[in-house]
């Protein structure tokens, strides 16, 4: 009888070992899966933070450009199709067709297009400092034309609303995090001071 009882105890201990090993394997798989999920979520949060930083940078440059326009920056300076006066003339179509650069969307990652220095530069760099950006924010101001406030021909003796489009590009800490924002801006001008 003793011999039979001892065989039963050995079999039970063997089953407990097998069950413990299976549970340990399941817990290891769950732990590795949780760790991979946490690492993926951490990368996603970092990318989202970087995209928000790029957007905030672009928005800051956009507001700076609008403030320049509001404070009569370049008042009376003619806009040109090649943007040589830092105001692009888009009243007769896109200024970027003449320079063969394409659209803003085509050039979101093209640093030459958004460069604020060098030959043919059409963008202007935001002068302030923003922490954590890979490159300075830049913006482009386009003049879209004007509408007279009076019915007089050529706005003689009256005022006009000058319309602008401001497009800004911001980059986060990673150069691949790019945000482009755009706004329309109207400024009332007294035609006597311009002509």
Textual characterization of the structure:
- The protein has 195 residues and is α+β, with helices and mostly antiparallel strands.
- The protein has one domain.
- 39% of the residues lie in helices and 21% in strands.
- The protein contains 3 helices and 5 strands.
- Strands 1, 2, 3, 4 and 5 form a 5-stranded mixed β-sheet that branches.
- β4 (159-171) and β5 (178-190) form a beta hairpin.
- The protein is rod-shaped, with a radius of gyration of 32 Å.
Any chance you could write out the topology, listing elements then pairs?
Layout: H1 2-70, E1 88-89, H2 111-114, E2 124-125, E3 138-148, E4 159-171, E5 178-190, H3 191-194
Parallel strand pairs: 1-3
Antiparallel strand pairs: 2-3, 3-4, 4-5
Number of helices: 3
Question: How would a crystallographer describe the biggest sheet?
Answer: 5 strands, mixed
Quaternary structure type? single chain
Distance between the termini: 120 Å
CA radius of gyration: 32 Å
The percent of residues in helical segments reads 25-40%
Topology as a string of helices (H) and strands (E): HEHEEEEH
Overall mean pLDDT stands at 77
């Amino acid at each position: 009888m003793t011999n039979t009882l001892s065989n039963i105890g050995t079999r039970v201990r063997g089953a407990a070992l097998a069950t413990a090993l299976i549970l340990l394997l399941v817990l290891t798989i769950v732990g590795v899966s949780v760790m991979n999920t946490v690492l993926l979520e951490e990368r996603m949060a970092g990318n989202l933070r970087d995209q928000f930083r790029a957007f905030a940078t672009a928005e800051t440059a956009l507001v700076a450009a609008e403030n320049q326009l509001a404070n009569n920056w370049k008042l009376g300076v003619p806009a040109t199709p090649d943007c040589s006066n830092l105001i692009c003339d888009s009243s007769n179509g896109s200024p970027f067709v003449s320079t063969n650069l394409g659209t803003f969307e085509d050039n979101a990652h093209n640093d030459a297009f958004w460069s604020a220095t060098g030959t043919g530069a059409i963008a202007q760099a935001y002068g302030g400092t923003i922490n954590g950006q890979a490159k300075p924010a830049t913006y482009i101001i386009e003049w879209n034309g004007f509408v007279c406030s009076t019915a007089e021909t050529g706005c003689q003796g009256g005022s006009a609303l000058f319309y602008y489009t401001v497009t800004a590009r911001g980059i986060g800490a990673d150069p691949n995090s790019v945000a482009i924002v755009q706004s329309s801006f109207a400024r009332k001008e007294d035609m006597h001071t311009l002509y």
